[in-house]
Amino acid sequence: MPDLSHGDAVDVAAVNSLRSAVMRLGRRLKHQRVDESLSPTEMSVLGTLARCGHATPGELARKEHVQPPSMTRIVALLEAKGLVRLEPHPDDRRQKVVSQTEQAEAMLEESRRKRNAWLASLAEGLDEDDWAKLRAAAPVLEKLAHL
């Protein structure tokens, strides 16, 4: 594993460039939303539920790096919008399990479609060599996103 904390100038420049590009691209992707009434955090929670199926509010808080009381509020907002449902935990009746509704699933699919189309239109401006490099980098970026 590389130690970039005291890396040479090339590593520092590469990390800086990567950070800047990922942040800029992320901001631009956020503008490609289907439902403007949802915050980026609410969309992220729905995305997490889409990946993991269901979770307790505490598990969601850990995965989303927010405090449990904040997640409780987010889940309540999503439930009020009909995007998640709360059910009793199968092993611990003191807890609830959060899962997405069909409405959330359809909204996420439309959001993915719109964002993918936007990103594909940007990629059309790349030459074949850059596009091949980007395709090769995608799994590494995915891994970084989930560390």
Mean pLDDT: 89
Write down the Rg.
18 Å
Helical proportion, percent range? 55-70%
Secondary structure category: mainly alpha
Element-level helix/strand string: HHEHHEEHH
**How does the major sheet shape up?**
3 strands, antiparallel
Strand line-up of the largest beta sheet: 1-3-2
Strand portion: 5-15%
Q: Please work out how many helical segments DSSP would assign.
A: 6
Query: Which word captures the global form?
Result: globular
How widely separated are the two ends? 13 Å
What is the β-strand count? 3
Which regions have little confidence, pLDDT < 50, spanning 5+ residues? none
Summed up:
Helix content is 65%, strand content 8%.
Characterise the protein shown here.
A hairpin with a 7-residue loop joins strand 2 and strand 3. The chain is mainly α. The protein has helices spanning 9-30, 40-52, 57-64, 68-80, 102-123, 128-145, and strands at residues 54-55, 84-88, 96-100. The protein has a 3-stranded antiparallel β-sheet with strand order 1-3-2. The mean pLDDT is 89. Helices cover 65% and strands 8% of the residues.
